[in-house]
Amino acid sequence: MTAAVAIDSLAKVFGGLRAVDRVSLEVALGERRALIGPNGAGKTTLFHCITGRMQPSSGSVKLFGDDITYLPEHQRTKLGMGRTFQITNVFTDLSLAENLALAIVGTDRRKWVWNRPLSAFPAVREQALAGLEAVGLKDRADDPVKLLSYGERRQLELALALNTHPKVLFLDEPCAGLSPSERQRIFKMIRALPREITLVMIEHDMDVALGLADRVTVMNRGRVMAEGTPDEVQSNPEVRDVYFGHV
Amino acid sequence: MKVRSYGVVMALIAIAAALAAPLVADPFWMTLITQIYIYGLLALSVDLLLGHAGLYSLCQASFFAVAAYTTAILQVRYGYPTIVAAPAGLIAGTLLAVLYGSAVRTRGVYFILITIALGYIIWGAVYRWASFTGGDNGITNVPPPSVAGFSIASQTAYYYFVLTVVILCAFGYRILIRSPFGLSLRGIKGSESRMQSLGYRTTMHLYAAFVISGLIASLAGVLYVYYNRFINPVAASFQISVEVSLMAIVGGSGTIVGPFIGAGVFLGLRNWVSSFFELHTAVMGAVFIATVLWAPSGIVGLVERWRPGIGKPKDQP
Amino acid sequence: MHSGILQAINGVSFAALLFLLASGFTLSFGLMRVVNMAHGAYYLFGGYIGLSITRYTGSFALGVLGGGLAVIPLGYLIDRFLIRRTGENHLAQVLLTVGIAFVLGDVALKIWGGDSLKVPTPIELRGAIELPGGIIYPAYRFVLIVFSVFVGLSLWLLYRKTQIGAVVRAGVDDREIVSAIGINIDRLFVLVSALASFLAGMAGVVGGAFLTLYPGAEWEILVYALVVVIFGGLGSLEGAMIGALIVGLLDAYGRWLLPEFSYFVLFGPMAVLLLFRPRGIFGREG
Amino acid sequence: MSNATSRRNLICAAGAALIATAFGTTSFAQQTGPIKIGLLVPLTGPLAAPGIDMVDGFKLYWDQVGNMAGERKVEYVIADTTCNPDQAITQARRLVHQEKVHIMIGPLCGHEGPAVAQVSKETGVPLVMDTAGADSVTKWDRTPTVVRTAVSASQIGHPFGDYLYKELGARNVTFIGQDYTWGHEVTLGMVQTFKELGGKVAKIIWNPIGTKDYGATVASIAPGSDAVVAVVVGADRIRLFEAWFSFGMDKRFKMYGGYWMHQDALPQMDDRAIGMIGNSLHYAAGLDTPANKAFVDAFAKKHRRLPSWFSESAYTASLWTRTAIEQIKGNVEDRAAFLKAMRTSTVQAPRGTLKLDDYDNPIQNVYVTRIQKINHPAVGAVLTNVPIKTYENVSQFWTWKPEEFLKRGPYKR
Predict the structure, then answer these.
(1) Cβ(D205)–Cβ(D178) below 8 Å
(2) What does pLDDT average to over chain B?
(3) Which CATH superfamily hosts domain D35-151+333-363?
(4) Nearest-CA distance from B269 to chain D in Å?
(5) pTM tops 0.95
(6) Interchain CB contact of B114 with C (< 8 Å)
(7) Residue ranges of chain D with pLDDT lower than 50?
């Protein structure tokens, strides 16, 4: 069986700095993988290279066996890749429903329709409301995003990614900057996702990461330093030294 | 649906006023209002990019001028009828937009600068290629538009013609910006990176918007040449591009009426102030400074602010 | 052959003036991310003030200095109270500074009138000097080239070899770093913006001595300055030098060899360059 | 423009008085209100200075005659065209429809000329075209309601070509021409007469208006030229002057101003200009006639400078207009009569005796001038143009038959 995501000795160099240093990684179909490591370990850069935001300096990325290393980002999305951003990246000038509508039509040809108003697509509206309901924001569908709290925006961030119907979902610190109770909320939403969706998630919060993930990859200084089940990783002395030593 | 009915009522009042204008206004005001419609349309073309897609194009005068020149040259020099000359103008301006559209590969300041450069190329061409464009003197005596023996010769008739075209354009524009495509432009303005990750090839969307904007500018150009019966290189100048974008901002960027209100304020002010105050350019400059600093959403934005209780989505039943 | 060399020197002398104007523009963009379309108006204002000083005192050198200095407070006030309020919104900046340029242009028209005025140069600079090969060249322009090279060299040394320059360069690369290491970025901004204003005002005086000053001159020269920074890359001092040379030479040779296409010769290559290298020759990608 | 529209506009503009026109009668209800004249000039923009010269000449005349014409008071409105045809059209329409002027005078910039002529055509309000010199206005694109009191571009060019060959003895000439319509027509007018006599054009160097650096221009003068002729406008006049001397060209070539050292530019030039041929023009401030002396003295006394041809032009346009108004006894509501009076009267202007030809362009003297320093009581030592050769009663068609000229078509580069 082919892996959902397969990365082969991927590297990204900025000037003289190797932000990502020959990382190889395989995530199986349906797997939930957490990516942890101290600040500056190269996790987000690795994410950007996988999702197409950045071009890797060398190495390759495969999605369901197809080489997508040089594919533009929007085409990756069509192949079933979804992502969230570490720094909330939603459309603040639009309403929540419009945010979701953009995600819903983004992967099909309706995004090019110019001669009919959006309101002529009741299915999109319905889907948007359903999508908002899934993250508990349905009653705010017509509010502008401006009025949302930070925590609610994080929920919308997740809803946007989910509504491109991803088969593989990359979550970049979904709980970044949230209060413990808000974390729990997001955590629950992620946990409730259907198992068919392969998850790759950067997470600082060890409890969240370990409680959610099937397997954990630990990065440090651009390299993978350990990989295994949460238990294995937790008991790895090297990891404890580098990572838990700080906590 | 209080808001919608309010908007509809306002639109109807505006249209009724526009229809009645020739009955009360003297010929000078009629020409001025016609001019406002045409420049408003050009400002609207700027605002499709500026207010929706977040791109600031400073070469809109190029499409305007190329369309106007094409129509004028075909009519005056080669004697083609309006039915050929006007569509040819539209096509020529739009083709230029298809060509210049490659500018959407850049963003931000670079986009602004490249469009300035592209604008200067057209200006230089119409200015220097005197044997074809009439150079500085331009092309005069463009006949009134006439189709199948029916000529729109009187000022009032042309006024109504322009009004009809502008209203149709405004409706079309309204559908466009409310369509999924229109929404995608606002999405790109909000966050291009997010749009890409949602599956949009953003450059293509911007390119399409650029071409549509060029088409609207070309339409304004064709309307202009039949209005003024005269065209010269000033129409292609950087100054015009700047002025129409200022109209869009002053009126209210991202709205449909805004650019027209802006055109009215700009042209009205210029004609009014210049009749008694020497430093009228300074007055104009001061208006822009004030708009940018204190009323970035323009006159429409100010009106919205002073209209409590209406226009806020929360108040919907 | 003879003409070819003369045109080259012509191009270089025009480049010398363009560099004075464009270097300030490009530096203030590099550090503060400010696109200042009123830069041409600074040029015009500096030129007019320098002209008045020269007429009053009879000293061209005082005029150059005074024209430059006089623009500093003007630039500071505009920067501090108007441009600063737009944050990093380039669009608002462009509109705002266009508005400012309109106001300044009209005020200048009111004060100095609509005639094209020439800044009087000292009598010893009015003649021509003979170069080897029998080429006669205006002494003034020769001095302008020397002056501009001197200014360019000083700027380069300031930029590359001093503490302040290092901080400015760091600021161009990453503003957060500069704030993080505890440097008062505001004071740095004021310094660079004062320098940019000074250079523009000074350029107005030295330019006004051979291009004359008149209403509308601010836009004509600004367009050239924009082309310079587009060629060179926004924010790069070296780019401004190379860009000024390219534009000066393209302008001189273009008008000599292809007079009918002189606008294309200047703007055509620029448009093509921008399409393939949107950030100019020295601009940084990404 | 259809009859319907022009009639509508006529009615709007002049009111009941014009109902008579519709009946084709010759008796007009004479109005007693003031006569309103609209002056269209650029007060801002690149040609603001000549625009102000025009305003000064215009006002001087009406002050001198106590703002009266045909026993009616004269009021004027000055509109700023900014040297932009678009703005010129709008302002002309404003003058006609809002200010209800009876007559328009102006504009200044060549390219505004056809634009304002069009408004005159649309509305029927007579236009006394002043200073805007586009050849076509009195040749190929004539408008019945437009008469010209200033000059056609090539009218001043033709005599200079003749002078260049016959009196200056030039045989192989480089021309420096301003690259826009006025520049083309003046320059190529010279080239035409010069070539017909057997002269050879070594090179024509075209410079767009606002050329910053004349170094490139003077460097590309054809080496074997025995003379260089300059046709330049605006700020370019001073830049060329600077470049000419600082490149040491005065030691290598003979330079003649075909259209160059006008009175408004001379204060920016200096004594190096003395002795040079400055212009070939229908007016020179140094013209030694009583009429001109009176005009120059009055102007200098008031404005502390000598009048440029723009000032004289607006002065004369006003004089001519008033002469016509006097002839029709102030009945400016009768536009046809006014235009007829303009076309038939002979005017003694500061620049000489003027009369319109059959194509509505003045037949007038053209003066080739030399720059001299004179002492004017009101201004002091000042450089000015002094005529050294007068071509009398020059037609816009020079010595050709009008039909011949018209068939040949406009001068184009």
Answers:
(1) no
(2) 86
(3) Response regulator (3.40.50.2300)
(4) 13
(5) no
(6) yes
(7) 1-28
